[in-house]
């Protein structure tokens, strides 16, 4: 089914999740305009995916937190956009100034601020990539499971509590919650012609379609949830914890964004995207099961103890995702996701090694 008469604007197109969304938009035939930070970023994407040439128009937005950052994009699109997918937001736990580096860009980067005077009335829906951390309770005792979270829940974390804690995870949680709150408040205050759908996924892993230049550029979630087992960062299972204990595959997240564009059931909804449990030991077990050649690289842990000591995570009610997306909706399980992610990382490691050897040879030639 072609959607060639529908125009979509995708922000942050060089990101882990957005790269999958871009691939899906192109495959389905949407007229796609995608923002990246620079012409160099756009060229890197096309070098990696030459089959996308001529099927996507790139625009350049250096800093999404700048007031009116997207104004020129909307002015240049004479026919306007039917849908907007906004994914651009910081995901970095290695920051020191939470307000400046996490919270402000997440809130100020909210693309709807540019729509009323520049986007035009033809925009039907904004699909916003939020996070399950806007829903969960950052202060809940992880050793005691509570009632399953639903889309009606909001994280009690505040900017002040995150900054005071000096905890980067809390800072990230606050940034995502406050950005989503700002989105809903914008709708309430301005009553624009478009409606809103917010996706709230937990830890996202999966194969990567974005340009990855070396092992230090693996995206944050794939890095701490999978790659750190391969690269030797994790030396023992004792004391090893994750910031959250549920996951969803990146391909599910991308598909949910696409399915939400024109689906009436997605109108003005928050939608949790949660597949299953994810723990350090589950990652270890799946890698050692499917990649016996990696056993020397991967710690063994305690194969029968799935959860870390004193961790009983609260579950998630994902009924709405099935209700909205219908019979075709199914979550990719952890085992499949881990296998596909590891295969992708091993492929990339070979590429990085080949590149390093090539650079050494060039260096030696001088």
Topology:
Blueprint: E1 7-11, H1 16-27, E2 31-36, H2 39-48, E3 56-60, H3 71-76, E4 83-86, H4 98-108, H5 115-119, E5 125-129, H6 159-165, H7 168-190, E6 195-201, E7 203-205, H8 220-230, E8 246-249, H9 250-260, E9 269-273, E10 276-277, H10 280-290, H11 319-325, H12 334-365
Parallel strand pairs: 1-2, 1-4, 2-3, 4-5, 5-6, 6-9, 7-8
Antiparallel strand pairs: 8-10
Domain NAD-dependent epimerase/dehydratase: 8-268
InterPro entries: Epimerase_deHydtase, NAD(P)-bd_dom_sf, NAD(P)_dehydrat-like
GO molecular function: oxidoreductase activity, acting on the CH-OH group of donors, NAD or NADP as acceptor
Based on secondary structure, the structural category is: alpha/beta
* CATH level-two architecture of the domain at 7-207 and 247-275 and 314-337: 3-Layer(aba) Sandwich
For the biggest sheet, the summary is: 7 strands, parallel
Radius of gyration, Cα only, in angstroms?
21 Å
Topology pattern, helix = H, strand = E: EHEHEHEHHEHHEEHEHEEHHH
GO molecular function, one term: oxidoreductase activity, acting on the CH-OH group of donors, NAD or NADP as acceptor
Pfam family, one: Epimerase
Domain NAD-dependent epimerase/dehydratase: 8-268
Protein name: NAD-dependent epimerase/dehydratase domain-containing protein
């Amino acid at each position: 089914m072609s959607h060639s008469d529908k125009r979509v604007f995708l922000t942050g197109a060089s990101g882990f999740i957005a790269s999958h969304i871009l691939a899906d938009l192109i495959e389905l035939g949407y007229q796609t305009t995608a923002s990246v930070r620079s012409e160099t970023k756009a060229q890197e994407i096309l070098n990696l995916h030459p089959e996308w040439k001529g099927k996507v128009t790139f625009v350049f937005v250096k800093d999404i937190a700048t007031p009116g950052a997207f104004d020129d994009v909307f002015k240049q699109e004479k026919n306007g956009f039917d849908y907007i997918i906004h994914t651009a937001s910081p995901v970095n736990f290695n920051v020191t100034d939470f307000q400046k580096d996490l919270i402000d860009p997440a809130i100020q980067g909210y693309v709807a601020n540019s729509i009323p005077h520049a986007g035009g009335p033809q925009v039907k829906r904004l699909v916003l990539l939020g996070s399950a951390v806007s829903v969960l309770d950052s202060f809940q005792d992880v050793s005691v499971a509570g009632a399953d979270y639903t889309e009606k829940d909001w994280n009690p974390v505040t900017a002040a509590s995150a900054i005071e804690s000096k905890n980067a995870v809390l800072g990230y949680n606050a940034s995502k919650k406050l950005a989503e709150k700002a989105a809903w408040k914008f709708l309430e205050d301005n009553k624009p012609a478009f409606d809103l759908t917010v996706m709230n996924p937990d830890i996202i892993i999966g194969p990567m379609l974005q340009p990855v230049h070396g092992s230090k550029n693996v995206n944050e979630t794939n890095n701490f949830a999978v790659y750190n087992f391969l690269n030797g960062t994790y030396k023992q299972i004792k004391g090893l914890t994750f910031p959250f204990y549920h996951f969803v595959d990146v391909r599910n997240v991308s598909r949910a964004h696409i399915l939400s564009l024109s689906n009436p059931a997605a109108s003005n909804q928050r939608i949790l995207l949660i597949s299953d449990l994810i723990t350090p030991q589950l990652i270890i077990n799946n890698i050692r099961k499917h990649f016996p050649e990696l056993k020397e690289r991967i710690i063994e842990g305690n194969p029968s103890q799935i959860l870390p000591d004193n961790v009983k995570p609260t579950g998630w009610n994902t009924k709405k995702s099935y209700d909205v997306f219908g019979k075709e909706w199914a979550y990719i399980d952890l085992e499949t996701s881990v296998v596909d992610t590891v295969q992708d990382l091993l492929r990339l490691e070979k590429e990085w090694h080949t590149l390093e050897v090539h650079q050494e040879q060039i260096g030696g030639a001088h």
